[in-house]
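User: I'm curious whether this sequence folds into something compact or stays loose and floppy. Could you predict its structure so I can see for myself?
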Amino acid sequence: GFLFMGILPLLFIALWPGKSPSDYGFEFTFQAPAPWWVWAVLMFIIVAGAKAAASPSNLSMYPQIRCRRWSPGMMAISNLTWLIFLFGYEFLFRGFLLFASLEIMDVWAAIALNCSLYAYAHLYKGPGETFGTIPLGILLCYLTLHTGNIWTAVVLHSILALSNEWWSLRANQNMEVERRKYKVQS
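Assistant: Here's the prediction. I'll summarize afterward.
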């Protein structure tokens, strides 16, 4: 996912005369800070994820690694790969696609196109997740345009995915997380 959704668009931009990754939201400055209410959205994402984690439809897909026993190393690898994947994902959708479409259409048309393709990318996960991408996609597009970069979208999407995985691991009776016990030596 990172290769196709992150690296390939970056290569395309590098080969396009007069364009740079910062033209597509890949920069570390903010036009404006994320609005204060993003904290409320974040809390909603975490609480809603906790409530939905035990549903059969959620447990049929998550966690995506179907390992029965999760070691701390497996958790770290899973978390890291989610973060790398979601950076590429957000760069493609909220960076490359959103900013490029703004060059040929107005804001709402660009957001509609972005959310349509974003929902289409989730179609295989069923109607619940597919329809859920629409309000989330609108929110992430808004935040990207408001801040001028993809980082708020990357952080929110990462928290959504990671918290969902952690709640799903906890709710899945066929999986267990190995806990390391440390002895304190005197």
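Summary: The radius of gyration is 18 Å. The chain has a mean pLDDT of 92.
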